[in-house]
Design brief:
The strands form 8 sheets. Strands 2-1-5-15-16 form a 5-stranded mixed sheet. The termini are far apart. The chain is built from 24 helices and 22 strands. The protein is an alpha+beta fold and 799 residues long. The model is unreliable at 1-14, 35-53 and 726-799 (pLDDT under 50). Among the domains are: 12-55 and 98-204, Penicillin binding protein transpeptidase fold (Orthogonal Bundle); 207-297, Orthogonal Bundle (Penicillin binding protein transpeptidase fold); 418-572 and 583-709 and 780-788, 3-Layer(aba) Sandwich (Beta-lactamase). Strand 21 (666-668) and strand 22 (671-673) form a beta hairpin. Helix 10 (233-242) packs across helix 11.
Length: 799
């Protein structure tokens, strides 16, 4: 009785017949155009096919295979790996003979007998597909290699149309692809030996579907934690079987299917004489015995170094040194097999991360951010970069996590920087010295309104109608005539307003700009293409740090002071080598003399005095250091300590990274603070960290300042007049000097305790002197800003 026919059966047979006709055409074309060139027996149709065949590419252009890139710390330890296809190329001599045999047995048992295209195999497959419900492939191992190369090339170019063309299997396009692969396979066989083609095949194949294990070496490491040279018979059979359908036979997700497929490969190995019957049966009895070793990729796996990793990744993706456009640069990182040696010191990084999270924990109820970043003076090398957040690229980050790197500019993954407060005063001081003034010059630090600030580069448009900043905390009591050195040490706002009134705002801007300072959004401070109004550092309020700058930028600027005025752009990469070990060009630090050596030395020396009764008193680190605190208006809530030794420059920042927030009367890290200044939290963290790391790096004494820039110290005040009877006293009676102590006359200046509230809050709870503050917390000290636009965020609150 005849069997019923179904439409699906008829459709399948029709498709098989069409395939038969197609492969017959291919066979005819191959015989006429390749095997028997110039044969006169070809039909007219075959001749047309030959013409089409001859128009196809005659050589296969092979791109280097995608390989994983590795990012290393300065000590060679791995920070992260990057890959599109996790691949580690190996020569055939370092690949187990078992996996070579298994591959040939199951994919192309006539591999060593044909010349790239197996014509008898094509015919046999076509007939089989007509008479059998199952299908049989006819591509040789060489043709499969060609297809993989074409797909790989299309992916490397990022061209989806090329990918589709390289994988098309239906209709005329499918036939054209097969013809192209066949012609290229013949060309490949003429160019490479059989062993070389097999080696390339074993390095290019996908052995997992996902997560992207390519090549037998990466696959062996992933599934069993071994090298490809150590693969045994059942392991080799498993890998060879995966190639047919990497997703379906992935042993992690489909172990039963994978085992069935493995056993089928073992049968093939026995059938073609690669293993004995006993070896086959023994191998079949074994389990898959997987021992998965994942190869995490990307910066999310970099632990405490994740934000630095992100910075380096973005540097590669945005810097033209690594390619003409973003696509090329990303391709290089994900597919180029690079070894990226970075500047990061793992020990310093660990200490920095611990320091910030000890002061303000990751999930602190205050929600405040806290950062540390260290660069090496004279080289620009970034040694550590930490913040109290967990790195996350999630669209919905959890509490305590963030994708933003608070230490860097927006274009490199940052949020745009933070107001720097009185940390800007170092640049005002440098310009003061540049303009032939001295540290011991006296200025009137009385509070007053200043008119007519000079800005020569913009026709003096900032001659505002009155700018009168206040001082922070008990420094409000510091007024009247004082030396510039004392004003620096105590960070007296009114003293710096008086200094700036004698300078050119454009000169101050130019000093900062020469030290690499720019806004966190990437805008230059000095840009001749912009009108002056677009350059906010010409506003008088910028004297007290109203600009948003990233911590990395500030650390790099301050690093010039111990480096004799030499500024270096911050760099996170020491070297990059390609897959062949050849060194590549990397972004340079561009170190150059930015400010006069004597000015740098004198500013650097002046900032060492902040530890002597100034805003950083109590923050000593056991080696010579200079530092400057910074506090914005309380309602802005951005606090800093930036300091350096001969070998390290570190910026510490604390505040709300997403919005302005008054940190007064707040519990932070389990401690209640009535007010927070630059030294209160950031300063303590800076001290904790630098006291651990600075002794391990150059930390000698700083050079003496230029005497012509220092000037002559003021004479000490005379001792109080003695009104007692001299006959009752010893004749030399100079005891009054003991209360004076030379430059220590500050102690009688009315309110020295207030300095500590600005520079360190020794109780670490913010209570010292704050109770007598007279409400200055609510003022913020920059009322003059209202006359230039009312920007309450302008003007440093401290010191």
């Amino acid at each position: 009785m005849p069997q019923p026919t179904s439409s699906s059966f008829l459709g399948r047979k029709a498709g098989a017949l069409a395939s038969f006709i197609a492969v017959s055409c291919i066979c005819g074309v191959l015989i006429a155009g390749v095997a028997i060139p110039g044969a006169g027996i070809a039909s007219q149709g075959t001749k047309a096919g030959v013409e089409v065949f001859n128009d196809l590419p005659a050589s296969l252009h092979t791109h280097p295979l995608a390989q994983q890139s590795t990012m290393l710390a300065s000590d060679g330890s791995v920070i992260a790996k990057f890959y599109w296809e996790n691949r580690i190329e190996k020569p055939l001599g370092k690949i187990s003979r078992h996996v070579q045999d298994a591959t040939v047995a199951t994919e192309d048992n006539r591999y060593f007998k044909h010349g790239g295209v197996d014509l008898s195999g094509i015919a046999r497959a076509a007939v089989h597909n007509i008479v059998s419900p199952s299908t049989q492939g006819a591509s040789t191992l060489t043709q499969q290699y060609v297809k993989n190369v074409l797909v790989e090339s299309a992916h490397s170019k990022g061209n989806s149309d090329d990918v589709a063309e390289a994988t098309q299997s239906q209709g005329a396009s499918g036939i054209a692809r097969k013809m192209r692969e066949a012609k290229l396979a013949v060309a490949v066989e003429k160019k490479f030996s059989k062993k070389e083609i097999l080696n390339r095949y074993l390095n290019i194949n996908n052995y997992s579907g996902s997560p992207n294990q390519y090549g037998v070496e990466a696959a062996a490491r992933h599934y069993w934690g071994i090298s490809a040279k150590d693969l045994n018979v059942p392991q080799s059979a498993l890998l060879a079987g995966i190639v047919q359908n990497p997703s379906q036979y992935n042993p992690e997700r489909h172990p039963k299917d994978a085992k069935v497929r493995r056993n089928a490969v073992l049968n093939k190995m026995y059938q073609y004489g690669y293993i004995s019957e006993q070896e086959r049966d023994k191998a079949k009895k074994t389990g898959l015995d997987l021992d998965i070793h994942n190869t995490p990729r990307g910066c999310v796996t970099a632990g405490t170094s994740a934000y630095f990793c992100d910075y380096v990744q973005r540097t590669i993706e945005t810097n033209p040194v690594f390619g003409k456009n973003v696509r090329q640069r990303k391709n290089l990182l994900d597919r180029g097999g690079l070894t990226i040696k970075t500047t990061l010191d793992p020990s310093m990084q660990s200490k920095a991360k611990h320091a910030v999270e000890s002061r303000i924990p990751n999930k602190d109820s205050s929600g405040l951010g806290h950062t540390l970043v260290t660069v090496e003076p004279g080289t620009g090398r970034i040694m550590a970069m930490a913040q109290n957040r967990t790195y996350s690229q999630s669209d919905k980050p959890t509490r305590g996590s963030s994708a933003l790197n608070y230490n860097v500019d927006r274009r490199l993954g940052g949020g745009g920087g933070f107001q720097v407060g009185s940390a800007w005063k170092a640049f005002v001081l440098a310009d003061w010295l540049k303009e032939d003034h001295q540290l011991y010059d006296k200025v009137d630090a009385s509070r007053s309104n200043y008119y007519g600030f000079r800005s020569s580069c913009d026709n003096h448009r900032y001659a505002v109608n009155g700018y009168g900043p206040k001082n922070a905390g008990d420094s409000e009591g510091k007024n009247g005539p004082m030396t510039v050195l004392e004003g620096t040490k105590l960070s007296v706002n009114t003293a710096f307003a008086a200094m700036a009134s004698k300078l050119d705002m454009c000169g101050i801007r130019d000093i900062a700009s020469s030290l690499g300072v720019h806004t966190g959004t990437g805008k230059a401070l000095k840009d001749d293409k912009l009108p002056g109004g677009a350059q906010r550092v010409l506003y008088p309020s910028s004297i007290l740090g109203s600009e948003n700058i990233s911590p990395l930028t500030m650390a790099s600027a301050y690093a010039a002071f111990p480096a004799d005025g030499k500024y270096c752009r911050p760099v996170g990469i020491d070297s990059v080598t390609d897959r062949n070990g050849k060194k590549m060009k990397v972004p340079g630090a561009g170190c150059h003399q930015a400010i006069d050596k004597h000015i740098a030395e004198t500013v650097g020396w002046a900032l060492t005095k902040t530890f002597d009764g100034g805003t950083t008193e109590g923050l000593e680190i056991g080696v010579p250091a200079g530092a400057k605190t910074g506090t914005t208006n309380f309602e802005v809530g951005s606090t800093w300590t930036i300091g350096y030794t001969k070998g390290l420059a570190t910026a510490a920042w604390a505040g709300n990274p997403l919005k302005n927030q008054d940190m007064s009367d707040t519990t932070i890290g389990g401690t209640y603070y009535s007010a927070v200044y630059g030294a209160t939290i950031a300063g303590k963290t800076w001290q904790d960290y630098m006291s651990q790391v600075a002794p391990n790096h150059p930390h000698g004494a700083f050079a003496d300042p230029d005497k012509s820039l220092v000037g002559t110290p003021p004479a000490p005040p005379p001792p109080p007049k003695d009104t007692t009877d001299d006959s009752d006293k010893p004749s030399d009676g100079d005891s009054g000097d003991k209360s004076d102590g030379g430059d220590n006359g500050d102690k009688s200046d009315g309110g020295d305790n207030g300095d500590k509230s600005d520079g360190g809050n020794k109780s670490d709870g913010g209570d010292n002197g704050d109770k007598s503050d007279g409400g200055d917390k609510s003022d913020g000290g920059d009322n003059g800003d209202k006359s230039i636009g009312g920007d309450k965020s302008h003007g440093g609150h401290d010191g």
